[in-house]
């Protein structure tokens, strides 16, 4: 917290007013008692803490993938990537990709990144696209003289031809195709919290629709599995079922499609929906009162707007609640005159539409909505650049030089001419000792 205050003073900002702060879920930042957001809230009562939405989505997917079959499938994918990540084996894989999948633009597997779920989505998709070539490569490696390589290739080949693994892989891909849209949207720097929550709600509705029509959706997945079984040469079967089972699903059925739908697909959907509803509830609570600024019906949001006005009354110079409510009614009339096709979709568009002189209180509340952060992705993108810049040879450079190199590395579109560099050097003192 001291560093934050020091940074503001260093930038010449003497009067600090915290409205919102956004961090990941680390206890040092988000802790209720000793976290940074708690310390800020002690001094600035209306400073709203927003948990980074990208981290929340990451937690949703991580928690959903804790189902044993899904977790094991992810482990197999990671093991195959590590096994193939040598020049000799990679050369074999590339050769098989050209032979088996000549039109493929991908020739290498992608690592399952632990934090960047956009890349994890793409790595799963790449693995599925190259699976035929991977199987062919492993079959060749089982004949190698090197016993370590041949034995490991045999183990991985058995895993790749396992029915449970292939079902889990297709189920993961089916869900990731839908969450990929939200994951990409949250990386944008111009998205607001309202748009992000609408996309999260759309994703939840789509997964719920899949859950309601699980028979039909999984039937399509199972058809894909049957095609893959012919391509990769494995039989579709269900595990042995006994009378008493404690470590895996023991569903009494003779149908492989029904068994895997009940044991893998349905639990994964249920867990995903539950995590989406649970982890995004804080964001929905933050927007609850502000939602009345965008809805045409004020009566259903009356209690929420009163709570919001009570929260901001002292610090934001808002008028009495009755005056603000009357102002909101007039603002609703303005929105009702706008046709649905022309109605703004984002908070910044509503702010441009609002006349500050006519609706001063609404304007102040809209400004707060516009600055509600969605993610910390933009600021955290500098971490990978700093890792490349601050090497052992540059470990003693000062902060100004590090910032300058980082700006040059990140903003490559900004061209700097030699004349500009010389001009800056001329302004500095001569550094030679003679």
Percent of residues in beta strands? under 5%
* Helix and strand pattern: HEHHEHHHHHHHHHHHHHHHHHHH
Please give the order of strands in the largest beta sheet. Answer: 1-2
Assign a percent range to the helix content: 55-70%
- Note the main sheet: 2 strands, parallel
Which residue ranges are poorly predicted, with pLDDT under 50 across at least 5 consecutive positions?
none
Explain what the structure shows.
Helix 5 (68-84) packs antiparallel against helix 9 (147-160) and helix 8 runs antiparallel to helix 9. The protein has helices at residues 2-10, 27-30, 36-43, 53-64, 68-84, 87-100, 117-129, 131-141, 147-160, 163-185, 193-212, 214-232, 256-279, 281-290, 302-312, 321-336, 347-353, 360-370, 377-380, 382-389, 399-410, 418-427; strands at 20-23, 48-51. The protein has 434 residues and is mostly helical. Strands 1-2 form a two-stranded parallel ribbon. The chain starts with a helix and ends in a 7-residue tail after the last helix. The model has no long low-confidence stretch (mean pLDDT 83).
Based on the model shown, name its key terms:
single chain; 434 residues; mainly alpha; two-stranded parallel ribbon; 22 helices; globular; IFN-induced_PKR_regulator; HAT C-terminal dimerisation domain-containing protein
Could you give the topology of this structure?
Elements: H1 2-10, E1 20-23, H2 27-30, H3 36-43, E2 48-51, H4 53-64, H5 68-84, H6 87-100, H7 117-129, H8 131-141, H9 147-160, H10 163-185, H11 193-212, H12 214-232, H13 256-279, H14 281-290, H15 302-312, H16 321-336, H17 347-353, H18 360-370, H19 377-380, H20 382-389, H21 399-410, H22 418-427
Parallel strand pairs: 1-2
Helix pairs in contact: 4-13, 5-9, 5-10, 6-8, 7-10, 8-9, 10-11, 10-12, 10-13, 11-13, 12-13, 17-18, 20-21
